[in-house]
Amino acid sequence: MMSYVIRRILYALPLLLAVNVLTFVLFFVVNSPDDMARMQLGQKRVTEQAIQNWKHQHGYDLPLLWNAEQTGGKQLSETIFYQKSINLFLFDFGLSDSGRNIGSDIRQRMWPSLALALPSLIVGLSVNITLALLVVLFRNTYVELGSSVLLVMLMSVSSLFYIIGGQFLIGKLLKLVPISGYDDGWAAIKFLILPVIISVVAGIGSGVRWYRSLFLEEVERDYVRTARAKGLSETQVLFKHVLKNAMIPILTGVVVVLPLLFMGSLIMESFFSIPGLGSYTIDAINRQDFSIVRAMVFLGSVLYIAGLLLTDISYTLVDPRVRLS
Amino acid sequence: MIVLWTDGLIYLLVLASAGLVCYLSRQQHMRRPLKKIAANPVAMASLTLLLCFALIGLADSIHFQAGDSRGNEAVSLLDVACDTMRKHGEKTYSAPFAAHGYAKESIPAPDGSTRWDYPRLQYGGAHLADPETEWVGDVFDKTFSGFSRGAGLMLMVLLLAWGDQHERRRALWRTSSSKAVWATLFLVVSGCYTLFSLSAYYHVLGTDKVGEDVFYQALKSIRTGLVIGSLTTLVMLPLAIVFGIMAGFFKGWVDDLIQFIYTTLNSIPSVLLIAASILMVQVYMANHPENFNSLLVRADMRLLFLCLILGVTSWTGLCRLLRAETLKLREMEYVLAAQALGVKPAMILFRHILPNVMHIVLIAVVLDFSSLVLAEAVLSYINIGVDPTTHSWGNMINSARLEMAREPVVWWSLAAAFAFMFALVLAANLFADSVRDAFDPRRANV
User: Which residues form the ABC transmembrane type-1 domain (chain B) (predicted)?
Assistant: First the structure.
């Protein structure tokens, strides 16, 4: 087990390196350091000297990937790529191009993201599973037909309409909660209710359908027939036996996304102006702040790989038949 | 005739899908699922609706030089059909079927004085002398006459088809799916006829901020949605198929390498990848203005590139499925037999593996379509989608977001985008469901 985990972590290193090279190339293939300097300093009337100073200050005055002037190992190390990447692997994100400390920004903005994403996940999961079990309970009746039509319709509505509609209905017409914004501490709750509700509702269509197909597969199994033969009621069979056995795919599906919750949701955060990591990333994209975008990409891929690893481990925990090798 | 890049690819796609349908219908083992789809009334009705959308999209993909303009402005067949809507621009917002403007302004009276009132629209309801009294009757009249003419047209076609005495075709007539198809066609054709005839006199879905007809915008957006949904799969398929079956078939280092590539791509948040690539295209276009001389070409290149990059980010899921399936297939007796007979690996892949994973590919393509159409709206919202000058539902929603805060609420842009998108995505989802049910071998016995 331990050796498997270590092997997986070692395997992650080349992946992260590849991710880094890819984002680096994507950004610098058209966007030269000179362009970045001009962008940051303001487009017009920038002297050559100012650009040079900015590049030197932020460490962009080196060659991109290969320094031909140096010798030996320095040919690789005296480059923008090396200088900017090596610290990422130590989770030291350095300063953004506009001079802020990215690491502390991330630590600070992580919590609002989490405060939105975690309740959305938990509420969404319980709502989806309950509804799916109910649909399965009423299978082969008109209830199922009606609900599956309704689910397809819910699924066919763009998430943007849920957000705009929810903001308009609950925030503007009924004036139950503020439309957008954020506050520190417990005061944040009233800002979080609406986004959580909306993200749960937006996910019902596809979520319930997915869990329904999981349960329907499980219902055909032999142990379910045994349970029915014992004389258990259909409700007991579903909520005790089927749910427990379906937990394996459900759990592994959830574990994958757990680490990514830290990254927040781009759309929800920017719509509800919650100062989380999602809106941070969008702002960075719009300002073309390369350092932040790279830090976020790196963080995202680390968390994704961690999610994959956690999934494998959770498999062995919930299903003893699985052996890692 | 001007052929834009996406236009050309769309024609290619139409040819390819026509070829695919021909090929599939001649394959013995594909007939059963195809018949199953044909027997499903919901599937056939949604397919009809999808084809109507596709027809509008295709009409919008035939561009030629505008006859009356001196510049290099290109118009499409759809633009010609909607000429009245396109030319009937107002000054600013106006509600659906309105004869008066959205905001009050000072109107000069003939005697030199001015009064503060809602101005009459330039085109919407301009034929009415006194809108207050005539309006209701006129709208009702025009709607009814438009609908009855459209319905009459359809009834005539129906009668002609009904009069067909051929016994086999008459048997086809009695199936429930053909009734569903005719019902859908009837609704779509008469509905379109009504809306088109009405839009000569009114703005059926109102006008937007710069006074452009919203119905026209929504119609133009159909092409963008279809292009994103279909061209992306054109990019995605070769990558997914080639890499997927190669990884599964050859195993060893090929498998390792391909898995490495798709894990890398997967671990980058796709929004960031798309953002970075779109940024790159923008910078490239800014640095090479000589290659993109007209607005249309620019927007078109951006649309094409968006499809490209969406394809690059979305092939991994299908690739993984194909790899797993190929790993199973390569142990089958018929593959072993082919190997024992000395068939070359490339030939085995092409003749024995590929046809047997085709159902997965087909299911993935129809399932992806609707999610891609939805994704376009979200991407346009964060400004990394299609060009702001391109008509798309995402852009319509994006601008409508701010209009919801106005008083009175400007709801019609949003409603139009919602209705069109919902119809397209719902039809695609329903069709995808039935395709999956028909082609998935695990559900075959049901």
Answer: 222-432
Residue whose entry in the numeric block shows the structure tokens 């004085």: B113
Considering Cα of B185, then B186, then B188, then B190, what sign does the dihedral take?
Answer: positive
- Structural domains of chain B, count: 2
Instruction: Find the CATH number of the domain harbouring B250.
Output: 1.10.3720.10
Q: How many CB atoms lie within 10 A of CB B429?
A: 23
Give strand pairing partners of B108.
B114
Residues B180 and B264 in one domain: no
DSSP string spanning A218-233? HHTSHHHHHHHHTT--
Decide if A78 contacts A64 (C-beta within 8 A).
Answer: no
Among B268, B382, B429, beta carbon nearest to A19: B268
* Closest-approach residue (CA) in chain A for B425: A156
- Structure token pair of residue A122: 């938990």
Four-point Cα dihedral B210, B215, B219, B221, nearest 10: 40
Q: Is residue B127 less than 8 Å (CB to CB) from chain A? A: no
- Rounded-to-integer distance, Cα B213 and Cα B204, Å: 8
**pLDDT tens digits along B103-117:** 777 887 777 777 777
Residue B242: pLDDT band (50, 70, 90) is very high
Within-domain flag for B205: no
Do B170 and B117 have their domain in common? yes
Q: What is the CA radius of gyration of chain A?
A: 25
Q: Which residues in chain A are closer than 8 Å to B418, comparing Cβ atoms?
A: 157-158, 161
Are B191 and B228 found together in one domain? no
Q: Say how far apart CA B144 and CA B196 lie, in whole Å.
A: 13
B206: β partners: none
Is position B82 within any domain?
no
| Model ipTM value | 0.84
Identity of the residue in B266, B378, B414 whose CB atom sits nearest the CB atom of A267: B378
- For residues B192 and B231, membership in a common domain is answered with no
Contacts of A142 (CB under 8 A, 6+ apart): none
pLDDT range class, residue B446, cuts 50, 70, 90: very low
Q: How far apart are CA A102 and CA A295, in angstroms?
A: 8
Q: Which domain holds residue B245?
A: 221-430
B90 in a domain, yes or no? no
Clarify whether residues B250 and B363 are in a common domain: yes
Q: Is residue B89 part of a domain?
A: no
- Angstroms from A156 CA to nearest CA on chain B: 5
- B61–A contact, CB cutoff 8 A: no
Length of chain B: 446
Chain B closest CA to A207's CA: distance in Å?
Answer: 14
Structure token pair of residue B69: 């303009």
Q: What residues of B are in contact with residue A156 (Cβ under 8 Å)?
A: 370, 422, 425-426, 429
The Cα B371–Cα A158 span in angstroms is: 9
Residue closest to B387 by CA, chosen among B110, B3, B6: B6
Closest residue by Cα to residue A34 from A57, A61, A64: A61
3-class state of residue B109 by DSSP: coil
